[in-house]
Amino acid sequence: MEIEQLEKVAAQVRRDIVRMVHGCQSGHPGGSLGCTDLLVALYFERMKLNEKDGKVVFEMDGAGEDLFFLSNGHISPLLYSVLARRGYFPVPELATFRKLNSRLQGHPTPHEHLEGIRIASGSLGQGMSVAIGAALAKKLNNDTSLVYVLMGDGEQQEGQVWEAATFAPHHKVDNLIAVVDLNGQQIDGPTAKVMDNRDLGAKYAAFGWEVMEVEEGNDMASVVKALYEAKSKAGHAKPIMIILHTGMGYGVDFMMGSHKWHGVAPNDEQLAAALAQLEESMGDY
Amino acid sequence: MKKYTFTEKKDTRSGFGAGMHELGQKNPNVVALCADLVGSLKLEPFIKENPERFVQCGISEANMISVSAGLTIGGKIPFATTFANFATGRVYDQIRQSVAYSGKNVKICASHAGLTLGEDGATHQILEDIGMMKMLPGMTVINPCDYNQTKAATIAIADYEGPVYLRFGRPVIPIFTAADQVFEIGKAWMVSEGTDVSIFATGHMVWEAIQAGEQLEAEGISAEIINIHTIKPLDEEAILKSIAKTRCAVSAEEHNRIGGLGDSIAQVIVKNDLVPQEYVAVNDSFGESGTPAQLMEKYGLTAADIVAAAKRAIAKKK
Predict the structure, then answer these.
(1) What is the DSSP string of A78-142?
(2) Does this model's pTM top 0.95?
(3) ipTM reported for the complex, 2 dp
(4) Looking at beta carbons, which residues of chain A come within 8 Å of B103?
(5) How far is residue B301's CA from residue B37's CA, in Å, rounded to a whole number?
(6) Distance (Å) from the C-alpha of residue B153 to the closest C-alpha of chain A?
(7) Per-residue pLDDT tens for B283-303?
């Protein structure tokens, strides 16, 4: 897809995010908006996905296709919107987000058999380990496709992340591309104040990862270019880590750059103000 | 009472190792993971023949459980192995979210359960694992009674689709079940029929229950002994059928009396058919260092304790 088209998809996804969170008056818009460009680039451009008659098909084993795992499950509105817009499940189902009897639980789960979801996440720190397991299975199956995983920067405070960070280079899991969403914010405030992660890129490099710093995580062209570069680094005995600098709340001016919108829903007025900034490129649900 | 004899004693963890060895040859999807305890889990024969299907995780149990969940996505059948304490309590949230709630086909295989790992003491002697694991929706909990049954159970769970907690241990105990047995998950095993009291035992407490049954028989009391190797799903039918006949029950387990097999049986009794029940279990405490035999005696887990409990249960019959 052309960059311009990807940007249009991203605008619609951002509309979906604020409308979903507004619709149930709960959920996490900040991180969802910040990672929108990455997920749109992955699902609409970068990832090799199994299709039949021009439509994506979902099988749990994901044989022969690239896999994506969301470790910071609270940005579920983003994942749900991207999956629906990519064709995994009907777009109108987005309206059920966080409501009773919905497949779109507050945090993603395969428990309700939602197409596109392979693991539950929400309790932080587990997704990279799961992605490593899926990547090892691909190697055992002689499947050369890739495994992607996204984590938050606050999530880097979980100990299990560093168990996985030690494991992946040791076992040469070089079909794994991990991304840390470096937005510098977490629930209680700026990450540097709550629990300073210091230089994450240097940390991962010291653990034996191939590290890429991407400064413009909300510029679609930069994100797509970085993902191509990351793929070219796969298969060289090292796992790949992208430190993706993003802005929390990106795309909605009054939500940007603050932890205040980590887990707060907009009211009617704020929703209207947000939607006025985002093009309805694919039609609202 | 049916007679049980033995010619050999072995640890149940060796039964697990033998089962893994056989699975390595039979099932190409089986993958073994271990957190720096390969020797204790008796995994060497599997690793020797299938080095590409063994994943050394180092001392990182949380990562091991979630990696196992990821392996299932590609159709693998991961057996995640370590000591029972580190396989359950330490990684409860990983099991809950990545395995149970996600419905993943992970086999959590735990050695050194209970008091009888002995000298290492309470830090390693988990007595709460059955409770934690059985509380997880969708989790199957299995605690076989000897070497042969542990081997059979290990092979059986590979063919079952879904998360399983398989519990075994370090003490060397008599082998009294058949080497060629077929292990049926969720199906209680009638060890010996009787009429005066039902003894429901799990793990190596089944052997203690057999000893207790013989002592009771010498005193003119007929005990029915049932091996509950699968604590979840529980064979309620077998329990109800037995207590309908004997009208009283004893549960025997190397576990805290809170949350273990005894409580599962009590639920069945309270819901369906009210009869007296006595517990043989650890009385809500931590363990301590000692030999297995010393600990079994101090914490009330011997055949003599089962005999006393059976007499108490019979005395309470209306």
Answers:
(1) HHHHHHHHHTSS-GGGGGGTTSTT-SS-SS--TTTT-TT--S---STT-HHHHHHHHHHHHHHTT
(2) yes
(3) 0.97
(4) 110-111
(5) 27
(6) 25
(7) 999 999 999 999 999 999 999
